[in-house]
Amino acid sequence: MNIPADLKYTKEHEWAKLDGDLVTVGITDYAQGELGDVVFVELPSEGDEVGQDETFGTIEAVKAVSDLYSPVSGEVVEVNSLLEDTPETVNKDPYGEGWMIKIRLSDPAQFDGLMDAAAYQELIG
């Protein structure tokens, strides 16, 4: 199970990476493994506002459809358009090309409150 130490995590299995005031968001290796083959990803539009712990989209796999939850509040400034045509990228590279959205962080304290890799490892066992 790949759990990069430089990322933060949510109990809903999203990861978050901070770069300045931008937070890149995706789902974890554990989550994509549990979902199985991803066939569709529905994401918000650039300019949309998202709230911490609120849904920002859905991910559909052969096994199930799941909501995606934002780890932080802010404005969506970029959406990974690659996932429109190749949603299976989430399975192949969840921490790289399979990222989903970038959010301009409105409250830095929210990012600081996310789980580190050790806490996430404990959550998933």
Question: Care to describe what's here?
Answer:
The protein has one domain (8-109): OB fold (Dihydrolipoamide Acetyltransferase, E2P). Helices cover 22% and strands 35% of the residues. It is built from five helices and nine strands; from the N terminus they run βββαβββββααβαα. It has helices at residues 29-35, 82-85, 89-92, 108-112, 117-124; strands spanning 8-9, 14-19, 22-27, 38-42, 49-50, 55-61, 65-69, 74-79, 101-105. Strand 6 (55-61) and strand 7 form a beta hairpin. The chain is globular. The mean pLDDT is 97.
Strand segment count: 9
- Report, as a whole number of angstroms, the end-to-end distance: 11 Å
Class inferred from helices and paired strands: alpha+beta
CA radius of gyration: 13 Å
- CATH class categorisation: Mainly Beta
Shape assignment = globular
CATH topology: OB fold (Dihydrolipoamide Acetyltransferase, E2P)
Q: Name the CATH homologous superfamily.
A: RNA polymerase II/Efflux pump adaptor protein, barrel-sandwich hybrid domain
Order of helices and strands: EEEHEEEEEHHEHH
Estimate percent helicity: 10-25%
Averaged pLDDT, please? Answer: 97
Oligomer type: single chain
Residue windows where pLDDT falls under 50 for at least 5 positions? none
Overall number of domains: 1
